[in-house]
Amino acid sequence: MFNIGLGSAGTTVSLASSSDSNFPPENIIDGKLDTFWLTTGMFPQEFVLSFTSTMAVNNVKLNCHNVRKLSLEKSVETSPVSFEVVREASLEGSDGELQIHEFNLSDVKASHLKFKIESGYNHFVSIHELNIEGSASRM
To answer: Which element (helix H / strand E) includes 44?
Structure first.
């Protein structure tokens, strides 16, 4: 398995609820911890990653800042529609440090993953890096 959540693996950010030209959503999939997507305030905020095909996802590791409540949703449709919740999480505050959260999954089939940030510890949250372990699925 490898990180299927990288732009270099063909993954795209097909939707983001906010965008700042200095901190664009594409920073989420560049594989660099020092770049990030910064929300523009208010909640919920969300972004959708679209894979090149349906994948079997086994683990999602998220590096973020100021996220309080988060849900992970999946879709197996051709377009990013008809999502269903896979996991929900409440993250502890981190006093200025990066938060690291993992969703341990077992071959969850997905063509698209939606990350919905329901609330934060501040008006702004940042998503720095995602590591999505998975492989092509044989639906």
So the answer is: none
Per-residue pLDDT band for 94 (boundaries 50, 70, 90) equals: confident
Sign of CA dihedral 64, 70, 76, 82: negative
Domain ranges for the chain: 2-136
Cβ(64)–Cβ(124) below 8 Å: no
pLDDT greater than 90 at residue 96: no
Burial label for 129, CB within 10 Å (0-12, 13-18, 19+), is buried
CATH topology of domain 2-136: Jelly Rolls (2.60.120)
Residues 36-60: what's their mean pLDDT? 95
Measured CA to CA, the distance from residue 70 to residue 134 in angstroms comes to: 21
